[in-house]
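We both want to read discrete structure tokens more fluently, so let's practise on a single case. Would you write everything just below, so we can both look at the same thing?
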Amino acid sequence: MNAQQIMETAEFKRCEEFHGHVCPGLSVGFRAARLALERLKENRSEDEEIVAVVENDSCYADAVQVLTGCTFGKGNFIYKDHGKMALTLLSRKTGQGVRVAIRPGAFAPDETHLSLLRKVMGGKADQTETKRFHDLHLKRSCDVLEMNDDELFIVKAVKIELPEKARIEPSEPCGQCGEPTMRTRLEEKGGLKICHDCLERSAL
């Protein structure tokens, strides 16, 4: 399929609706999530059947959540602040995992696009520049959707320890602010059980 046909699919439209717009980062996340699911022979996670680990908090991560069904609320979406366009997908059923990372040079920045992005984000772009930016933004999104997997990604099988399943713990009032806090997130200090928020503020 070409880029336009991909963008008209139901699964891409779900990603666009969740994220709010089409952009190159969303397109990379879409491609990475689809490829990882295919390699693991897994379907979208209804509960915690699979675990996703992303290494950036950009547009990319939204497509991963939509396609894989891994979310913060389920406890099977893990964020590591490595600043990389990389996804590790793990199967609880098979114990297998796959890491899909952007190939060096595959998503090289376009200086005109970046310059216009800074202007648009800074509110300094005129009407012509704004249109030019959106045209380039869409073109780069389409380019990503039409690249071959091997051109775009490095894919490796991985074996790492699966995280524990999400646990539901009872809450207790924090000994300082009084707000109900998950029992396992309270720490002893001065004979009181204190939440992390209060501990951090008291350390300032």
